Amino acid sequence: MTSRTFLRNFLNYGNPVVTIFSGSYCSRLYFHQTPVCKVAWQAETGFKPSKVAVVTKTTRYEFEQQRYLYAELSEEDLKQLLALKGSSYFGLLERHNIHTHNVGQIVDNLQKEGIEVRIVKRREYDEDTVRWADAIVSAGGDGTMLLVASKVFDKNKPVIAVNTDPERSEGHLCLPVRYTHTFSDALQKLRNGEFSWQWRQRIRMHLEGTGINPTPVDLHEQQLSLEQHSKAHRTTTEAQRSTTHNYTTPCLLPVRGLNEIFIGESLSSRVKYKSFKPHLTLSHHRASYYEISIDDGPWEKQKSSGLSICTGTGSKAWSYNINKLVAQAVEDVLRIGKAKTGLDIPLNQEVIESVTEAYNESLIFGPEENKVFFSVREPIVNRVFSNSRQRGFASKICVRSRCWDACMVVDGGTSFEFNDGAIATISLCNEDLLRTVNLD
Amino acid sequence: MTSRTFLRNFLNYGNPVVTIFSGSYCSRLYFHQTPVCKVAWQAETGFKPSKVAVVTKTTRYEFEQQRYLYAELSEEDLKQLLALKGSSYFGLLERHNIHTHNVGQIVDNLQKEGIEVRIVKRREYDEDTVRWADAIVSAGGDGTMLLVASKVFDKNKPVIAVNTDPERSEGHLCLPVRYTHTFSDALQKLRNGEFSWQWRQRIRMHLEGTGINPTPVDLHEQQLSLEQHSKAHRTTTEAQRSTTHNYTTPCLLPVRGLNEIFIGESLSSRVKYKSFKPHLTLSHHRASYYEISIDDGPWEKQKSSGLSICTGTGSKAWSYNINKLVAQAVEDVLRIGKAKTGLDIPLNQEVIESVTEAYNESLIFGPEENKVFFSVREPIVNRVFSNSRQRGFASKICVRSRCWDACMVVDGGTSFEFNDGAIATISLCNEDLLRTVNLD
After folding, report:
1. pLDDT digits (tens, 9 = 90+) for B166-205
2. What's the rounded Cα separation, in Å, for the pair A280 and A272?
3. How do strand B51-56 and strand B135-136 relate by DSSP bridges?
4. A93-132 burial string, b = 16+ CB within 10 Å, else e?
5. Which residues are within 8 A (CB) of B133 and not within 5 positions of it... i.e. 6 or more apart?
6. Do the Cβ atoms of A215 and A243 come closer than 8 Å?
7. Which residues of B, range 353-372, sit inside 8 Å of A by Cβ?
8. Coil, strand or helix: which one is A342?
9. Which chain regions cross the lipid bilayer (chains A, B) (predicted)?
10. Which chain A residues are Cβ-neighbours of B233 within 8 angstroms?
11. pLDDT digits (tens, 9 = 90+) for A358-415
C-alpha cells in the first residue's frame, strides 16, 4: 500500500483515530459473558492513521510502588507489605510485565507501518493528545476505554481498545483477545477495510436549578498517589470556586456517558489516618430521594439506592448487574408460582437456567440503539413512596434531586454535584456517537 | 402504685430502661409495610423506671438552620434559599413543631408519673446518658433507634422508640403510632405489664489481619454542622493515629449491628467548594472484591457491589430492598417461564401480586431468630468470578477483604476500614440481645 493510498484512505475518514487505551487496575469490569452486539456498518474501505498516540495504563504494580515509595519505603518493604496483605509482589510484577510487553508489541507494529507514535501514560492523557493524534493506540481494559471516550467528542474519531491483560479482565469493549498477541493482523484488517464500524450512543446531560456545579470532577485517577490527589483537589477547588452558581437555563455538561450515569446519595466523611493510602473514606449508605419524569411524563417521587440510566453499551455493564436475576431467585419465583397456580411447572436446572438466561438477555440492547434504559436501584416502597415502574426504556428522562449530598457519576469516572434543587435532563443525540470498530 | 411497688417491679428487671430516641431527619427508612414480627415473651409484671433521659432528634428545620446560620445567613435568607430549592420553610417549621410538641407530651407524662427526666439532644447522647438513666425516653424514628441501640450493651435495658412524626416516616422500630399521641397509655401498659418483651439479635464483628483499625467512626452526625464535622474528624484522626496496627488475633469491635452490616468499596474524593455543606463528596461506584466463607465452609471469591449481612430486624430494612422483587420482574419471569414450559401460567395481576408478595415475605425472619441473612449485592459473574449462592441464612460468616478503599458500615451509622488484608468474622451471641417491647 503506497503512502498515496494511505492518504486517500485517510481522507475517506476525515480524521480517523485508532484509540487503544489501557485501564487503571481498578477499572470497573461489570461486564457479563455474552458476546458484544455486532450490529454495525461495513467500512467502505480501510483506513490508516499517520500519527498515533499510545496511552498506557497504570498497572497495580505501578500503583502499589507509587503508594509505598511515597511513604519512603524500599522495594524490599513493598515486597514484605504486599506479602502481609496476602498479595504477591512477583505476581503483580508478572502482570505488569505482560502488559508492558503487549504495549511494546503494539508500538512496534505501528512503527513498522511507518506510523508516527507517541506514548502517553493514562494520567497524562488529555485533549491535546486527542487533538495531536489522528490515531491513538494503546492496550488496556474497559476501564480506560471509558476514560478515553470521555475525552473524544469528534464522532469521526473511532476508539478501539486492546486488552493488554486478557487473563485478568474481560475487556468487553476491547478487540477480540487474539489481537492482543497479533496486533499486526488488526492493523492489516483496518487498512484493508476488513472491519465494520460500531457506533455507540452516548448520554448527554443538561443541568439546571440551584446550587449546581457543571465543573466535572475526574475520579479516574483517584486511586493514584497522594501528590496527584492533592493536585486534583486543589485544581477542582479552584475550578469550582469560580463556577458554582444558580443555572436558570439548562447547562450542557462537558462529558458524555458511554456506559451509564448513576445518581445517588454519597454521604462520606474524610478521615486522615496513618496509612499509605491518601485518605480513608467512609460511606454511609443512604436512601436517595428524587423525582423522575420519563419521556415528558408526570413527575413521580422515588426513594431508592439510586438511579441508573444506561446506553446499549452500558446495558451489559453495571445496569446489567443491577437488574439481572440469579438462578436462585428465578427458581424461587417459579416454585412459588407453581404453588400458587397448582400448575406442574418443572423446576429442573435446565428450565431454571433457560428462564434465567432469557430474562437476563432481555436486559441487553444494542450500543447503537437510540434509547436509554433506566433502573431504580433497590426501590423503597412504603405508604409514602409508591413504586411504579422499576425500570424501562426511554428517550428522555428528567430527574429532580431531593438529595442531601448526592452526585451524578458518569461512567464511574466523572462526577457532578446533584443536590436538592438541581434538575438533570438525560437524552441522546447523534452528535455524541462514539465511533469504534468491530473486528471478527 | 406505691414507690415500694415501683421498686419491686424495678428490681424484677434489673436496670430496666425505656429508651425512646428520635432520629435525625436523614434516618434511613428502608422499611416496607408488613407488620413487625410479634414473637416475644410476655412480661411477668410491669416495670417503671425512676430516672429517664429524653433524647430529641435534630429536625430538618434545625439542620437547615444550623447550616445556613453557620454561613452567617439570616432566618430570612434561609426562607428564600429553601424556597429556591423547592423546599418550604414553613413546611419544615411545621414538622419541627409537631416533633417538639410530641416530645413535650412525653416529658409531661413521665413527670406526672413522678419520674425524674433529663432531656438530651441526640448529638449529646453518650454512654454517660445510658449509665445515668435507668429509663431513657424520647420520641423519634427508626434512624435514631439504631443510633441508640449502638450505645446500649446491657441486655437488661429495653429500648423503645416513639415515632414523633408519623406522617413523615414509617417508624417500624417504634411503638404503634397511636402511642405518639397517647403516651400515658403506653406508660400505664408498661407499668401494668400489659406488654411483651421483644428481644432482638444483634451482629458482633471480629476483625483481624493487616492495616485494620478497630476505632469506630460515627457517621450518625455527619450531616450536621461544619464545626461538628471538623471536630469529628480531628477526634477520629487522633484516635486512629494511636490505634492503627496489625491485629494477629481477632479483635471484637465495640459496636453491634441491629439491622445489618454492609461491606463494600467506597472510593471517594473530598472536594471543598463554596457551599453551606462542609464538603462535597463524590463517590465512584466500584466492584468490591472479597472472599467469603459461610458457616466455616470453603472460601469463595466474590465480586459485587458489596455484601450485606442482616439480622431478623434488618431483614425488613436495607437487605429487604436489596433482595425483594417488584411485580414487574416477577411478571417477566413468569411470562418467560410460560413460554419456555408451554404451560398456561396465568399472568393476571392477582397471581403476579400473590407470587411477588410470597417471594418478598420469604426474605423476612424474626428479630429474635438466632441466624443472619447474607446477600451478595449485584453479584458480578464472568469467567473469573463464578456466582454461586447469592444469598442465604448462616450462623457464622467470614469475609476476607480484597478491597482497595472499603469499609464495613454497621447500621449505616458506624464505619470501620476494611481493606485488603483484613478479615471479619460475623456472628451472633445472646449476650448482645437488645431488649425492646411490643405494645398492641
Report:
1. 887 778 888 888 999 899 999 999 989 899 989 999 999 9
2. 6
3. parallel
4. bebbebbeebbebbbebbeebebebeebebbebeeebbee
5. B17, B49, B51, B52, B53, B118
6. yes
7. 354-355, 358-359, 362
8. coil
9. none
10. 269-272
11. 999 999 999 999 999 999 988 887 655 555 678 999 999 999 988 767 788 898 878 8
In whole angstroms, what separates CA A233 from the centre of its chain? 22
Q: Which three cell numbers stand for residue B245?
A: 496496627
- Are the C-beta atoms of residues A415 and A314 closer than 8 Å to each other? no
- Cα gap B17→B10, rounded to integer Å: 10
Report, as an integer, the average pLDDT of B329-337: 96
| Beta-sheet pairing, A414-417 with A406-410 | antiparallel
Q: Is B326 helix (H, G, I), strand (E, B) or coil?
A: coil
Give the Cβ contact number of residue B389 at 10 Å. Answer: 15
Show which of residues 26-55 on chain B sit within 8 Å of chain A, judged by CB atoms: 26, 28-33
Q: Which amino acid is at B63?
A: F
DSSP 8-state class, residue B164: S
Residue count of chain A:
440
Residues with Cβ within 8 Å of A75's Cβ and at least 6 positions away in sequence, in order, are: A65
Long-range contacts of B180-189 (CB under 8 A, 24+ apart): B180/B102, B180/B139, B181/B102, B181/B105, B183/B105, B183/B106, B183/B109, B183/B139, B184/B109, B184/B112, B186/B162, B186/B439, B187/B48, B187/B109, B187/B110, B187/B113, B189/B46, B189/B439
Q: What is the pLDDT of residues B254-268, one digit of tens each?
A: 889 999 999 987 643
B-contacting residues of A 311-350, CB under 8 Å? 318, 321-322, 325-326, 328-330, 332-334, 336-337, 339-341, 343-346
C-alpha–C-alpha distance, residues A335 and A315, integer Å = 28
Put simply, whether B287 touches A (Cβ < 8 Å) is yes
Q: For residue range B60-90, what is the model confidence (pLDDT) as tens digits?
A: 888 778 777 777 778 888 888 777 766 778 8
Strand A217-218 and strand A196-200: pairing? unpaired
List, as own/partner pairs, every contact residues B118-121 make where C-beta atoms lie below 8 angstroms and the sequence separation is at least 24, other chains included. Answer: B118/B51, B118/B52, B118/B53, B118/B54, B119/B53, B119/B54, B119/B55, B119/B56, B120/B53, B120/B54, B120/B55, B120/B56, B121/B55, B121/B56, B121/B58
